[in-house]
Amino acid sequence: MKLPRIYEGLDREGIYLEGLRRARATVNDMVDHNHRHFAIMTERYQIANASPLGLNFLMFRKAIELQGTPEQQKYWLPLIDGAKVNGAYAQTEVGHGTFVRGIETTATFNHDTDEFILHSPSLTSTKIWPGGLGLSCSHAIVVARLKIGKPPVDHGIHMFLVQVRSMEDFRPVDGVELGDQGMKMSYNGTCNGYAKFDNLRIPRNSLLSAHAQVTKDGSFIQGKIDKTRLLKKTYSIMLHHRGLIPRCVSFALAQSVTITARYSVAILEFKSQHYRILALISQAYAILFASKRFDIQYEALQQDESGDGASARLPFIHALASGLKAWSSTVACAGVEEARQMCGGHGYVALSGLPEILSAVSASLTFEGENYVLWQQLGKYLLGQLQAFTTGIPIAPEMGGFLTGIEQYLRDEKFDAEFKDARRDELLDASKLLSIFLHRSRRLLVTAYRQFERNVQQLHPAQAWNRVMMPIISAGRAFIEYLVLQYYKDYIDAISTAEPSLLPVLTRLYSLFALTTVINPNSQFTSASFTEDGTLSLSQIHDMGEQIDELLTDLLPDVISLTDAWDFTDASLCSALGCRDGNVYERLMSWTRQIPINSAVKESNGVLSSMWDGPYGMEGILKRDIEKGARL
Amino acid sequence: MKLPRIYEGLDREGIYLEGLRRARATVNDMVDHNHRHFAIMTERYQIANASPLGLNFLMFRKAIELQGTPEQQKYWLPLIDGAKVNGAYAQTEVGHGTFVRGIETTATFNHDTDEFILHSPSLTSTKIWPGGLGLSCSHAIVVARLKIGKPPVDHGIHMFLVQVRSMEDFRPVDGVELGDQGMKMSYNGTCNGYAKFDNLRIPRNSLLSAHAQVTKDGSFIQGKIDKTRLLKKTYSIMLHHRGLIPRCVSFALAQSVTITARYSVAILEFKSQHYRILALISQAYAILFASKRFDIQYEALQQDESGDGASARLPFIHALASGLKAWSSTVACAGVEEARQMCGGHGYVALSGLPEILSAVSASLTFEGENYVLWQQLGKYLLGQLQAFTTGIPIAPEMGGFLTGIEQYLRDEKFDAEFKDARRDELLDASKLLSIFLHRSRRLLVTAYRQFERNVQQLHPAQAWNRVMMPIISAGRAFIEYLVLQYYKDYIDAISTAEPSLLPVLTRLYSLFALTTVINPNSQFTSASFTEDGTLSLSQIHDMGEQIDELLTDLLPDVISLTDAWDFTDASLCSALGCRDGNVYERLMSWTRQIPINSAVKESNGVLSSMWDGPYGMEGILKRDIEKGARL
């Protein structure tokens, strides 16, 4: 039971070097055995951003694929794949976040030397946040404003491939200031960093030139690029990253629930405990199934793209990726915190592994698109589709079934929802449950749509949007929860022929997921949107509560199998509470005793002396003749 | 703009010593100037547990006050107040948390030497969690099972005052193993620790003997103690600690909101941003006012206690403390996270100060009583009171108004709630809003009561309780939210004569707090309990949304005054984003550049060489002849 190095209480340098060690191991494995597994996720199932070498294979490579000429690709891609360079992607600036048009960094063409001068003209133009940039990158894609001529003409935002460190001693090249952002809530094994450029000279071919070139004489040549197609391709790459998040957060939730289930086996008889853990298990599976379905749809998009390039699927998949990312990160983050709390005090200690999982998953709420922004992207799509539908403009095929049924909501006629008067037993039926979510989603979308239409008659569209934002977000969330349930049901239907033995437990889990979304397990304060219109009656809500009770009883024997099924290794969980052998207290105490500060104190070296007679030590304050006193 | 030491990326030892430095400064200040301010909170408004010297003045002292003889008190209390000793309170054991009856540690009387033998008979009996115990305490109260005679007779759980470290060199005394639990989510400036006893000999007068003594000949003499009175006194001390939490978490929320408001001044025009920040501000004030009211009631309890001792107020105050603690920690924790997210990526970096506030406030969900347990304590009280009321047994005076009005809910007659058909304007009226919360609270309590009564006819009471737990928790939460609103209203009424100029803004904030509790600002998924019975109509809910809009517009100019009013110093916020001068980016970059790993790399010392040619360094993987390549 050796204490994992990461729990030794290392300083910033030690934590970074431990991250580098793990990154080197995974990259060597990829290079030696010619696979790409760790280009997406680390060995602990975190998104590859968590590794100081991870973004080389994601953002850095994708940028060159998208914007590099065939020659540039031919030169750089093998260097990337062989880990012969380590690249970052530097776009965000400290003063204006991800707002691309705000970018201040300039790349000014110098005709005399055939170079660009890369420069950060202000403090706010400092590049910030790129993973790996602080301490680990040899190169970076730098997004900057291209300027040519005297007086300089602004040709907009372009990407430049820039060497930022020497390959002789790894010091930053002259003209580049690089630094680490210090400790963060998580991802401390990598070095998110900043870069400030002071008139750095870079060769003309640093410009990624697939779509725009600067010639030796300073002419700017816009390629014959189909701008729509480029934009779609750019979107599709961003979607790839965004689409990884549901997968990663489902694993984060699954890891936490596995740890908590193994720790709390003994106290699962308490209703609140097994209510919580089974609801979380059902959420982790629901996110995983949804992310698998997303991958299939993304794959189909890729097929289209490699064909005629401009896919009609893109808007729907973009909306889906935004909503799934926002929803799954919200659910997973709350779920990991819930699992942590279920371990009481032990869940607060680093050794449990839970604080690190929680902090990492928290980042997913804001990166790759802040969730409020993403909800609005989904909302915009849904409102646009509904408007098209009402005005007879063709809608996306993916929205057909959903929108066709929405007519009766638009007509505002009283009608009987499919589940109205459903009896107790029927409230477990997969289709009935789905119809409850569908009803809610349609109703909330029409409500938001009407409010927006009413407001936009009096206000500027942006103001109207602002005013109706909350109902729009609600409509988006309800839509995603409906889709997730639909995808889960499809998955069960597929399983029922492929693996019928899994059907009973997955069906119960499906019902539990649906019912505990209607009646939230944390409190009964979260279900207004299901009940406020009165279509679900109060007695049906009570029946649902009793169905949940029975499902919990039925599923309780499966808790350990359902978590073992994720098949996490002890090394990937890195938890004193959650190892497969269940030796919780023995491992917890064994690891605790190995923490270096404890052995250091035991050996009476510098630590003890700092504690006792160092400048703030205890000696100066405590009374030394108390030994006798203890015996009064 | 000097980087605060805590952001240097220190290791476990460095972080602890920084905590000790701060603790020494605050304790010296108390001793030198004869005050008790930092006995409750640290200089950064964290609960005193966060300091390695903090529990000396709280738990350690209180235990001696409660269980020590006059002689023991006379000897120890001045040593505590003068910080001549530093004590811990060791009760929890690793295998059974705070479950007192599970305690395994034994103190066996040895007649021959006139001593007790303190012993940890198993791994699970290791004492764990006491603040300061790991590295900083000279003494500890150890809760152990008293055994006397041959064969030993078990005399139950008692407190022993034990010296654990030498006052000569501060090493653990022979027979005690002490250690630090390593890194936690927060509170790393202190050293929560463990202690394992190996037949440690302690003198007979180590037993705190106010209520039970062991004589030289080994007789056990139970004092003429009124057990009920002792229990009440014990409760009252626990209530004191529990009651500190709402105060501390209101400051944590206020600090976060202050940082976020100062950082996001520029983007407050976005509706979602000012919706969120003003809702959080209203919550921080609501918690603060409620905690002030709790203090007044606790003070009255103390008056009673110093009189005849057994106060009739205790059960209500106990229920109130449990509910307020559970509610305020839940709200503050969600609010701090929300504020952190509003700062985007910057809120993820330690320098923002927000990760530390978040991690610290997260602890309050589980310590001093896990919230699920506390909600049930409140629920038990409420159900008991309602049962008393229905069966004609006298109820607590504090519950009079609430229960008298509950009759019509019990009669199950249709009746018109006070706010039924309230028009738009009336939905801002303080009394009307309060009546909405009162209605919900009464309705949910009666629902939970009926469900319990129905279930208890068929099931064992514990099973019935288990089955109805969720409705009971909902009823508790609704009751607390009603009380908090009531206390807020009382506060406004008092202000209206004392400081009439504050009335408009505090009244708006009151309405905003109430309305955004009905219509939750994060989503519209949280208000089922207000709407599910249909008494509030859908059109009233819409009206509330519009009232919120107007309140936000009215309150927007006050955002900075409302946060400045808490009067936090820059030093206590310790945030690059939230200083009073508003120089966000300048400070952020200045602090970032001062992080030691950055200057270390610049000076090309050991760090750079670890990064480059250390065992996992980059040299072994990157291609060194690439300098030319960069120019392709």
UniProtKB/TrEMBL annotation, chains A, B:
InterPro entries: ACOX_C_alpha1, Acyl-CoA_ox_N, Acyl-CoA_Oxase/DH_mid-dom_sf, Acyl-CoA_oxidase, Acyl-CoA_oxidase_C, AcylCo_DH-like_C, AcylCoA_DH/ox_N_sf, AcylCoA_DH/oxidase_NM_dom_sf. Keywords: FAD, Fatty acid metabolism, Flavoprotein, Lipid metabolism, Oxidoreductase, Peroxisome. Residues 6-82 form the Acyl-coenzyme A oxidase N-terminal domain. The keyword Iron does not apply. The active site is at E368 (proton acceptor). Its main location: other. One of its GO terms (biological process) is fatty acid beta-oxidation using acyl-CoA oxidase. FAD binds at T92, G131. GO terms for molecular function: acyl-CoA oxidase activity; FAD binding; fatty acid binding. Its cofactor is FAD. Residues 430-603 form the Acyl-CoA oxidase C-terminal domain. This is Acyl-coenzyme A oxidase. It comes from Penicillium frequentans.
